[in-house]
Amino acid sequence: MNTTTVTHPTGSYPIYLAENALAHAGAKLADLGHTGRCAVVTNETVGPLHGSALVASLQSAGFEPTQIELPDGEQFKNLDTVAQLYSQLIEAKLDRNSPVIALGGGVIGDTVGFAAASYLRGVPFVQIPTSLLAMVDASVGGKTGVDVPEGKNLVGAFKQPEMVLIDPNVLNTLSDIEFRSGMAEVIKHGVLSGETLFKAIESNSKKPENQANPHHILSTELLHDAIMVKVEVVQEDPFEKGRRATLNLGHTFAHAFERLANFNMRHGDAVAVGTVCAARLAARLGRCSANTVDRITAVIRQVGFSTQIPDYAPTEMWAAMFTDKKRVGNTVRFILPRAIGDVDIFTDVQAGDVLAILAG
Ligand SMILES: NC(=O)c1ccc[n+]([C@@H]2O[C@H](COP(=O)([O-])OP(=O)(O)OC[C@H]3O[C@@H](n4cnc5c(N)ncnc54)[C@H](O)[C@@H]3O)[C@@H](O)[C@H]2O)c1
Question: What is residue 151's predicted lDDT score, i.e. its pLDDT?
Fold first, then answer.
């Protein structure tokens, strides 16, 4: 099994990546010294698909797992769900040493991680991401949290997992539309990391047979390389004091589009067009070449995303950016590409340039 060790300020954890890894989850957790009761927290979609394989693997390694299913959806990533989860963990008699395992997409990972950070002042936490977005992004780096009525992800904690276990086979049950949504983050990681990963995504997404089935774009090797981009960034900047912000490439635009759509726009769709906007803005400011913009735009289209800017007034979109966490004083922070593999943070962008990009 491919193993990557992630180091963080208080220790380290392994990321296991292999087809059929789910069957080995129990043994891997036992190898880390855990025993006894544990909880598998999933949702009502993923639980019936993959819960029994994980529970069987845990039982065969000597664990006594309780499976808990939360409702499915971002609207349940909130403090009510966390409160219900605390009650279920107490009912399952989980103590301070009992691992809590998140089996699901980013919503489950974030919610369960926050509960694991605070239940009994913190219990061992395991991430088993099942969506592409959660595999390449949300499960690595220790950020957990929930949404509150005032905004997304405004309450949370850093909670590093004991281990992350990634089984690409579970992606077979993920819908094409959710898979594509995760590809927006894979492309973003390609732009961040450099020519090797970006060219691999470019050439895979060009193949006609892959366009018919987006799942084919991503080999296990490519998935590994995309995960490594996040690993390298969070190891260098665990608490988002600097370089980690570059993971928000395309997100200043994306969050404005999502907010104006009342979050009825899929995150990946927003990030895809947001990344194109970031590249166009960089080119307008003379910071990146037209060729870089064309390559980013082409790969995003090949994966099946629209690059059409949503139909809101540019001034409305600009105003929406100011309510974002990326706001810095009187301006907005943009993450812009200079080239493939060279992405930086800019706080000197003028409103007129952003409005020109938003006008299309
Ligand atoms: N903590 C972080 O660093 C971080 C980073 C990025 C995003 N996030 C968060 O992640 C969330 C988005 O994650 P997401 O895109 O995974 O959404 P999600 O968790 O809602 O999953 C998307 C859908 O796919 C389903 N699903 C997941 N795996 C499946 C599988 N294998 N088979 C069938 N269906 C499956 C889910 O049930 C859900 O309906 C957001 O809340 C976002 O804020 C967190």
Answer: 82
Say which of 50, 159, 188, 267 is annotated catalytic.
267
Residue 72 Cβ contacting ligand 1 at under 6 Å: yes
pLDDT of residue 214: 74
Give every CB contact of residue 91 below 8 A, 6+ residues apart in sequence.
Answer: none
Query: Can 207 be counted among the known catalytic residues?
Result: no
Q: Which of 114, 142, 173 is the last residue of a domain?
A: 173
Low-confidence ranges of the chain (pLDDT < 50): none
Scored b (16 or more CB within 10 A) or e, 202-235 reads bebbeeeebeeebeebbeeebbbbbbbbbbebbb
Handedness of CA 145, 140, 342, 303 (dihedral sign): negative
Select from 126, 145, 173 the last residue of a domain: 173
C-alpha of residue 68 to centroid of ligand 1, in Å? 17
Domain membership of residue 180 as a residue range: 176-358
Q: How many domains does the chain have?
A: 2
Our answer to whether residue 295 is catalytic in this structure is no
DSSP states of 154-205:
EEEEE---SEEEE-GGGGGGS-HHHHHHHHHHHHHHHHHH-HHHHHHHHHHH
Both structure tokens of 97: 């040493």
* pLDDT 10s digits, 134-149: 999 999 999 999 999 8
- The 10s digit of each residue's pLDDT in 164-211 is 999 999 999 999 999 999 999 999 999 999 999 999 999 988 887 777
Active site residue 248: yes
* Ligand 1 atom having least distance to the Cα of 131: 28
137 Cα: distance to centroid of ligand 1 (angstroms): 10
132 vs 136: CA distance, rounded Å: 6
Measured in Å, residue 280 CA sits from the centre of ligand 1 at 28
